[in-house]
Amino acid sequence: MRYLVDLVVPGGLVWGAVVVLLGPGVLPDTAQPVLQVFPPTVFVIGALLGWYFNRTRVVFAVLALVLADQAVQQFGPIGAVSSGTDRIVLDAVAFLLPLNLAGLSLIGERGLFTGLGLTRLILIFAQVPLVAFVCFPSQRHLAVLLDHRFVEVNLSGWTSLAQPSLVAFGAGAVLLVVRFFLQRGAIERGFLWALVGAFTALQAGPLGWSPAAFLAAAGLILAISVIEMSYRIAYHDELTGLLGRRALNEALPRLGSQYAVAMVDIDHFKQFNDRYGHDVGDQVLRMVAAKLERVSGGGRPYRFGGEEFALVFPGQSVTEVLPHLESLRRAVEASCFVLRGADRPRKKPDKPRRSSSPRNAVLVTVSIGVAERDAKRRRPGEVLKAADKALYRAKNAGRNQVKT
What we know:
- The chain is about 60% helix and about 10% strand.
- The chain is elongated, with a radius of gyration of 28 Å.
- By secondary structure, it is α+β, with helices and mostly antiparallel strands.
- It folds into 2 domains: about 230 residues, no CATH class; about 140 residues, 2-Layer Sandwich (Alpha-Beta Plaits).
- The two termini are about 35 Å apart.
- The chain has 16 helices and 7 strands.
- It has a 5-stranded mixed β-sheet with strand order 2-3-1-6-7, sandwiched between helices.
């Protein structure tokens, strides 16, 4: 269920809203001026957001959508044109647009005015004279390829797109779905739903929808993905995936009059890092974060900084959360963290062999201090300070225990 929600929100909701709200006859005529400025406004905002937050993939994708929008406006909806130069242009747009979106999703962020950035910009604009070249009568043998039939079947009942365009959209969709489930990033999701919006735009004309509206929706989805990514960078810890300290500071004042906060610290983490290296230390941090995410009692985990985490229990007292914290402490202690042997290959071989190196299991434990909001500690900072003092009592008492 979580994977489905991650896939659909927010891109799928934006696309669905456009389908419902911008359908034929849904909005009154008085809304038409707004609809006319909707596409250019979205394209400008999307490009500016991508540039400001250094998401050049989004800038280039918005540019590809703008070029497609201009082509559709000049030559008409693809379903309304059956032959001639106009149809060649629209077939080229329908073939190139999904390839652009899928290809741009794969490239790295290398800046807009760098050598690579300018090269990509040139490649996108170069498609305009390329399409014009294909339209020359002497190049009609190339134009025929854009309408080539791979299978002899009539698809006009549900789509006006030529089969090469359908193949391009299908391949792009498969690539973007796989990439999303591998990366689970907001930008990857944005590109996937932008592809859906682009496909719908090229189908929209015969159905009475505005192609420009769906191309603008694709741009809006990309713009939202930039905002979502920026939010995650600001409020989430990249290493563990937990919410960060800024999110904790904003959440505490909204909890009301009753809550408990626990500070969790990995015991001897600096020595562990110095002895085994930062890569192993990062693995330990992720392991402890995973345990915190599964804590019982409704605790919400946050990465506080370094090897310290915070657990917030809304509406609960220290007495109520102590059993859950003790269960968490035991769960971390029971986790067998085995270090990779010196002769162990990085990739799993087809025929595993017994390692000659001894298995090096490392004990990982945590110390926990907890405090609650009460008459003496009304401010969030005071509760955090009290929980931190309790944490130091746990460490001074020998570590691997919970103190109030």
